[in-house]
Amino acid sequence: MKVLNLQCAHGHGFEGWFASNDAFDTQLAAGLVECPICGDTAIVKMLSAPRLNLGNPKGPQAQETSSRHAVTEVSSPEARWMRAVRELMSKTEDVGDRFADEARKMHYGEAEERGIRGQATREQAEQLLDEGIAVMPLPLPAALKETLQ
Ligand SMILES: [Zn+2]
Predict the structure, then answer these.
(1) For the whole model, what pTM was predicted?
(2) 11, 58, 76, 117: which has the highest count of C-beta atoms within 10 A?
(3) 41 C-alpha vs ligand 1 centroid, how far in Å?
(4) Which pLDDT belongs to residue 126?
């Protein structure tokens, strides 16, 4: 597994996971590597910053040095946000535009409690909040919405 630090033409930094450097080159040439933030396929490889202690959290403190720090710095806030969003996506059910109905049903015990996501208008969201139903806005980058549909 190769973890590469990549950057798109718009300057978004992100990590790409590939079987090998060759696999990256092949996928890049085929236009399969795209920026998770804006969907750009003009990707360049940044200076590689090897991950130390991967799978070995008890590694010597001495190895917690500049390399790991470099990984943290090139991992942009957007990239970290994208990971959090993907995590959330994997744990919630997409109910689409039935979001307000489903949230209300769960609140009043008419449907099973579970994590849901979907679309709601501003008015619907305000009504839910008025009824004491917790909803959270989740602004998603356009690139991610497209890949999930
Ligand atoms: Zn980008």
Answers:
(1) 0.42
(2) 117
(3) 8
(4) 86
Residue 58 pLDDT greater than 80, yes or no: no
Q: Which residues contact 91 (CB under 8 A, 6 or more apart)?
A: 115
The widest CA-to-CA distance across the chain, in whole angstroms, is 55
How far away, in angstroms, is 10 Cα from ligand 1 center?
A: 5
Q: What is the pLDDT of residue 63?
A: 45
Does the pLDDT value for residue 103 go beyond 70?
yes
Give the residue from 11, 3, 74, 5 showing the smallest Cα distance to 37.
11
**For the chain, what are the domain ranges?**
2-76, 92-148
Per-chain mean pLDDT for the chain: 77
Letter for the amino acid at 86?
A: R
Ligand 1 centroid to Cα of residue 42, in Å, is: 9
User: How far does the centroid of ligand 1 lie from the alpha carbon of residue 35, in Å?
Assistant: 5
Q: Separation of 45 CA from ligand 1 center, angstroms?
A: 13
Centre of ligand 1 to C-alpha 106, Å, is 38
